[in-house]
């Protein structure tokens, strides 16, 4: 290495230190494309390593580096925890729309996009190497706790309806699908851990940033978790307190009551009742308490008549009730035509297409036979599966989501004559 005395003398003549020289090179824009700046940035890792391992400045430089990293993480976590984010739930005004629109995966993706450096640190600390490495992991390489999770997912795969549906559309190996499911399970667990850790820190930064805590609190309440456990988890930042949960339940109850009123006044509601039993066990036994803790109750549901049903479509209800055999006040007894399940086979007996020689029933059976043959038959027929066309629909009913509103539970025993509705 050539002597640096000439460089030192040049810096002394310019009355500038080495640190000042480097600072000027990096701070002024006119030197951005200078060869010295390009070389310095290209070999910045070597410069930092040299400063870090210098015996005299090791502790000082490490502390300064930690301060920079700490401020970087705090700035990233400050944004999702601020008032402008959408992860603030107010218990006194909580609505079902907030609960239905909440998505843990969406929250995790927003956290990853908003706090990339912090998310990368969690990925390193949790040894999350991604789906590719997890797919190569075997049960012997996983911890004992995660091995139990693998067994659970293997049992679920045995009755996986999604796999049955996939069998109608494409070929797949059961071993590879099970391996992919196990990898997805591991990835989901790591994602939940990172989301929970970040949510706890956001809640510690801002108490109103409690979206995940509110959802977990309502779940614990629905699972009949003791209040002491809920309050303990609230102190840990994982859940909200029991008092906050009660405020949220009151807000949701008021909203449900208002929705039931609007739905009932629309005259487009349908009602459903069902009986259920609940065992109201008491943790503290007293002499005055009855031994009968089993209660027979009745639940009520209301849901909107969908598929564009209007009040004009319901004008036939009066005629139906007048001819109903259950109407004891009818003027004349009416005996409706009784139908059986085999009468359903008479629906749509004709062909949809006049050029077709097969009936609608035969066309559907023909399609089912081809699908079964090319899916479960000899391997030779598997190549023709993509050539099977979907059957022509006769009367397609669109699939829509039906909103359901839960009414108050009634203390009525349907198993008795007096309580039978």
User: What oligomeric state do the depicted chains represent?
Assistant: single chain
User: Can you tell me the residue ranges where pLDDT is under 50 for at least 5 consecutive residues?
Assistant: 130-146, 156-174
Order of helices and strands: HHHHHHHHHHHHHHHEEHHE
Please tally the helical runs, counting DSSP H or I stretches of 4 or more residues.
Answer: 17
Helix/strand-derived category reads mainly alpha
Widest sheet, order of strands: 1-2-3
InterPro entries: DUF6589 (IPR046496)
Domain DUF6589: 367-421
Pfam family, one: DUF6589
Protein name: DUF6589 domain-containing protein
Describe what you observe in this structure.
α7 (104-114) crosses α12 and α10 (144-158) packs across α12 (174-205). The chain is mainly α and 421 residues long. The protein is elongated, with a radius of gyration of 34 Å. Strands 1-2-3 form a three-stranded antiparallel sheet, with helices on one face. It is built from 17 helices and three strands. The chain has four domains: 5-71, no CATH class; 87-251, no CATH class; 268-338, no CATH class; 351-387, no CATH class. The protein starts with a helix and ends in a 15-residue tail after the last strand.
């Amino acid at each position: 290495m050539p002597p640096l005395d000439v460089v030192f003398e040049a810096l002394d003549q310019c009355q500038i230190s080495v640190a000042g020289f480097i600072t000027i090179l990096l701070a002024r824009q006119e030197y951005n494309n200078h060869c010295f700046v390009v070389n310095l940035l290209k070999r910045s890792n070597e410069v930092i390593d040299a400063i870090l391992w210098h015996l005299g400045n090791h502790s000082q430089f490490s502390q300064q580096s930690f301060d920079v990293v700490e401020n970087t993480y705090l700035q990233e976590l400050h944004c999702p925890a601020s008032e402008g984010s959408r992860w603030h739930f107010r218990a006194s005004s909580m609505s079902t729309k907030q609960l239905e629109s909440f998505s843990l995966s969406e929250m995790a993706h927003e956290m990853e996009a908003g706090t990339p450096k912090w998310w990368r640190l969690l990925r390193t600390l949790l040894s999350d190497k991604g789906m590719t490495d997890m797919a190569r992991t075997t049960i012997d390489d996983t911890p004992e706790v995660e091995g139990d999770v693998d067994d659970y997912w293997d049992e679920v795969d045995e009755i996986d309806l999604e796999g049955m549906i996939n069998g109608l559309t494409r070929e797949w190996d059961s071993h590879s699908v099970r391996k992919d499911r196990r990898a997805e399970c591991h990835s989901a667990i790591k994602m939940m851990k990172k989301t929970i850790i970040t949510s706890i820190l956001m809640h510690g930064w801002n108490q109103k940033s409690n979206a995940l805590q509110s959802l977990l609190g309502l779940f614990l309440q629905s699972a009949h978790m003791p209040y002491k456990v809920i309050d303990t988890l609230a102190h840990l930042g994982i859940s909200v307190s029991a008092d906050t949960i009660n405020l949220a339940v009151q807000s949701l109850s008021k909203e449900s009551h208002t929705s039931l009123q609007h739905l009932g006044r629309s005259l487009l509601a349908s009602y459903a009742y069902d009986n259920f039993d609940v065992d109201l066990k008491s943790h503290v036994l007293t002499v005055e308490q009855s031994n009968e803790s089993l209660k027979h109750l009745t639940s009520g549901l209301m849901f909107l008549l969908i598929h564009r049903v209007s009040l004009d479509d319901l004008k036939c209800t009066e005629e139906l009730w007048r001819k109903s055999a259950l109407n004891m006040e009818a003027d004349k007894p009416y005996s409706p035509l009784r139908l059986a399940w085999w009468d359903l086979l008479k629906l749509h007996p004709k062909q949809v297409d006049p050029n077709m020689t097969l009936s609608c029933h035969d066309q559907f059976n023909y399609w089912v036979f081809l699908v079964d043959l090319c899916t479960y038959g000899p391997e030779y027929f598997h190549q023709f599966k993509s050539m099977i066309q979907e059957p022509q629909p006769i009367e397609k009913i669109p699939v829509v989501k039906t909103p359901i509103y839960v009414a108050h539970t009634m203390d009525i025993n349907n198993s008795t004559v007096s309580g039978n509705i």
